Amino acid sequence: MNALAARRRHPAAIAVLLMIGLFLTGAVYAAVAPEPADATTKALPAQSVEEGKALFRANCATCHGLNAEGRATGQGDKVAGPPLAGVGAAAVDFQVGTGRMPMAQPGVQAQKGTVKFDEDQIAALGAYVASLSPGPAVPSDEAVDASKGDPALGGELFRVNCAMCHNFAGSGGALTRGKYAPALKDVSAKHIYEAMATGPQSMPVFNDANVTPENKRDIIAFLDTVDRQESPGGLTLGSLGPVTEGLFAWVFGLGILVGCAVWLGSKAA
Amino acid sequence: MNEQDTPTTGSEVATGDGHGQAVRLDEGHVVGQGGIPERFTNPGLPHHVPRMADLDEAAAQRAEKQVATLFGISILGTLLFLVLYFLVDVNETVYVPGIGATSAANVGLGVTLAMSLLGIGFGAVHWAKTLMPDTEVVEERHPMRATDADRSRVVQVLSEGGASSQITRRPLIKYTLGGALALFPLGLVFQVGGSLGKLPQKSLSLTWWNGGPSGPGEIPEFKPLRLMKDPENQPIKASDITIGSVVHVMPEGLLPDPKTQEGGAEHLLEEKAKAAVLLMRLDPSQIKSQKELDWGYQGIVAYSKICTHVGCPVGLYEQQTHHLLCPCHQSTFDVTQDCKVIFGPAKRPLPQLKITVDDEGYLVSTQPFREAVGPSFWERGQ
After folding, report:
1. pLDDT tens string A192-205
2. Domain ranges of chain B
3. Environment class of residue A212 by beta-carbon count within 10 Å: exposed (0-12), middle (13-18) or buried (19+)?
4. What percent of chain B has pLDDT over 90?
5. Fold for domain B208-377?
6. What is the interface pTM, i.e. ipTM, of the complex?
7. Rounded Cα gap, residues B265 and B332, in angstroms
8. By the CB < 8 Å criterion, does A207 face chain B?
9. Is there a contact between A205 and B244 if contact means CB atoms under 8 Å apart?
């Protein structure tokens, strides 16, 4: 303890204490923080349109209306939930399968979250929504098989059609007024395909005439290649481009130089 | 070092001038008498504090060992560097915590080179801080001016040289030499100026949509051009564009064939940078501008993708809010209001391209852009 007490006026003491304090606070919070409440009831597996309809009425109708006709909030032209006729099973599989729906709270954009339904329930919901009006279907496993696509062509298509929002390496980026394009790292091939086909949230629709199913598979192959790519140059810093790299160089590079200069200039005794 | 142990004459406090003693920090509050002394005296160098290694031979030996260890680390780093240079294959990868899989050669060579250089640097600094004398030494600056004898000697040598070269006696040589030296830089100036290329002439106001190549000196003749998908270079059927769709468009004839890479514009990047167009389909009832409706086709509208601020590609279209966002400086354009600027530094709306469909149902332009696309320039006009 004496050794510690002797160093209490050391210039680094404040920094060390701060780090210890922050670390302890984080550790204690992680240990005692309550689990987020989950009030969703687990229904039995259901396949048919009828069972999908029952699930829909129990979980989605509050915002989307009892017959998926959409509901207004009554405040201007804001909608609580858009009408779902014609969005197709692919849209349901994407929104519910990534945990974006049911939406936890109103906001500018539905966030990716924990998936509240199992596969059978999602399929039943999709069957019900698809029965309202034809729309994009859930793609087959072959249609999203990255090994059958051409990553080079996919990369070219990605840079023209997707990179302006999702970043050249699929790291995502900001949109207007708090919305954002999410990062595409480790998103399943099926969900990437469904997002292109249905245009969830702010994302435009890339229908089969615009980006053909083969080209969609090429884009999936490209993203798969990016996911698996090693980084021979070291830290990627999130692949966000020159901003993070500049920030890193200025903060750490310059910080180390300033530290050296302080050490060189300090008196030895 | 003992010079500083006794206060130098300069550090004595001036007294007797009526403005009092210097105030020490441990005196508490002292009422001042106002005024300042005639002349501040030089406080001299601060008192020298000896270091541990100055007083204790054991500490000095410890410091010696520390410095030697740092130099030893440097030696080890250099040797390891050489070993790794020959041993590690450049294609080998290694897992580094916090970074992931990365090049083994980069990591190995980087770390050993850092050991090698930082070992020398830290060792030298530590040596200087612990063992080398650290007493402050005053070195008076010598006068810069040379002696008068040296100065007159230089002048004499120069004037003798000038006279012996006969430049003063032979004006023809003097004037031709002056002319040659004055003209010589012209060659460089013209070369640099000429390498900047042709003047832009009308090319900033024209695009490929005017009917073809639009570089300096070229005056394309207008013809309707099909809207082609980038990069596939295929024409677009109006019926294929669903509401909420976005297509990135180039004019017919600009892009080379995607398979063979043949054809296309001679100056591909320059033409692309001016002609890029974003095609969107909105519900016509949401479009508030009559001109936008008239210039589109059943809610399909085409706008220049080149930001009117500094020319970045405006590609971030939000299909629900119909905002078009420029990623460079966050200029936001509202597609329902003829791409009016609703946020950010851009000053003008994006120019719209007037389109319709041809006999086969493909989208075509019916006139070039009515105004120059992209950022402002001097000759742009209104």
Report:
1. 999 999 989 889 99
2. 52-130, 208-377
3. middle
4. 63
5. Rieske Iron-sulfur Protein (2.102.10)
6. 0.75
7. 31
8. yes
9. yes
